[in-house]
Amino acid sequence: MVLTEKDVVLFSGDSITHGGRGQKMDCNHILGHGYQFIAAGELALKYAAERPKFINKGYSGYTMSRLLETWKEDVLDNNPTVLSILAGVNDGIFGYFNKLTVDEVNKQYEDALSQAICLTKEKVPEVKIMVCEPFYFPLDRSDLSYKFTPHPDCEPEFKRPDSDDTEESQSYRIEAMQGTRKAAKKVAEKYGCTFVPLYDKFEECFKNTKREYFTWDGTHPTVTGHMLIAKEWLKFFEVI
Question: pTM of the entire structure?
Fold first, then answer.
């Protein structure tokens, strides 16, 4: 896809997309720090003469249903010409704690994603939508240090988010994620969106290194993981 001055590329999702983004007009942090920052930077440089806009509306801890609650002001009111959605990992987390069945989790995700896409297409008929495949890779918790990440273990008192996971919670989330992945692809194909596969790409990279080098807690990517997502995202962006 070729961007022009009329284009607005909007990233929606959970904490993976949020990336510590600023809530105010501080351009050092306004896009957050992750795959969306890398992808936006690549496109902004390439199309600097055209000056397209880039918006991050990721929210830490949000499920797909929660994103839908503020879809009008976050997405529709910004009239995106390109919309990227990466959500689903929290659906499994909250499903486990709220004692939902895996089928209930996947139905809620599929229904919310479908509604979000339909609302967007209704408001902006020509919008290009990219649905990124959600992922979750449970780690071996026998060593909860950060020594296998790309980053020095400089803050050992910072507890890894997966420290309190159990075999039961991990098994539930693995099963839920398999269904969520299928639902993401199913919805993308149903509504003519571009599906960006990520799960198998991560698995392929794990063969040569530790999982922790790509995801430091099984959910959130390291700088390596974010670069992987950005490269895959940009590859599919080129052909939408």
Answer: 0.96
